[in-house]
Write a structure and sequence with these properties.
Elements: E1 8-13, H1 19-23, E2 33-37, H2 47-57, E3 67-71, H3 75-82, E4 92-95, H4 100-108, E5 117-122, H5 130-140, E6 152-154, H6 156-163, H7 179-189, E7 196-197, H8 207-219, E8 225-227, H9 230-238, E9 242-243, H10 244-253, E10 261-264, E11 267-270, H11 271-288, E12 290-291
Parallel strand pairs: 1-2, 1-8, 2-3, 3-4, 4-5, 5-6, 6-7, 9-12
Antiparallel strand pairs: 10-11
Helix pairs in contact: 5-7, 10-11
Amino acid sequence: MKHLHLGASLYVPATRGDLVALGNGRKYPRLRSLIFCTEDGIRPDEVDVALRRLGEALPRLEPTPMLRFIRVRDPGVMERVLALRGIGAVDGFVLPKATRRSMREYLSLLAKGDPFLLMPTLETAEAFDPREMAAFRDLVSDAAVRPRVLALRIGGNDLLHLLGVRRSPRRMIYETALGPVLSMLATTFLPHGLPLTAPVFEGLAHPDVLRAEVVRDVEHGLLGKTAVHPDQVALIEAMYAVERHELEMAQAMLAPGVPAVFRMHGVMCEEATHRRWAHTICARAEIFGVTDEVEIPPAGSLGPAGFTRSVASVQ
């Protein structure tokens, strides 16, 4: 479940002058994943600047537990990025506006031995078409492709743009026309072992709505979410912490000789139908911790001052 280590992925424009500090984890030490953006986070006339700054930063990146990706703009930009010195310092690439056609173009740029992981983003009109999504699923499930695909990202803002609307910061994305689309994508990809990450929430002044949205993300099986500001990261990841009673039930289901059906914490537990959930709960607990009650950390808690909250680590 390596995709769980993405946590809340922070996007940063690749035109920034502090890419080395960001990429080496010095600016935000608690960050789990960082994405340098050469696509919508910059203007078209800034691509050359972004590639130059990436070219200067990549050879200076140090080994770190943080996952590092580059969101390329298109296959042509990816080809230029792959030629940069030090490109091996990143874990892979986010592929924007991924379709079956563009996915084949991206894959053609990678040699068989390249270690790079890929995160295609579903954010074109094809994402509204269940048949097209099933065909895309078949493409990325191919034995030659699947090991490269860490997760699929959902580009909520691009999908809303196609509808000609922008959601209110007082509304969860599940309260918009995309609600049924997210459910369709979850049922198309998750049963086939293809993880999905959740769309960005851009309402920086509404942490209560973000908290509620992450709860819905988790209920839909979407673990991992795009963050547009560092203050969102700790809040999102706090919602991935596992409540203690959930972990106890999950551990009981995975214990040797567990009954087929049993009662625990006032809930019926059925090993055959809850086993996959139990594995995910245990993995989340190991990564994000265990809490008696999910809390919302204060804004700014991601930075060098540290992230403090009452979470018991799982041994």
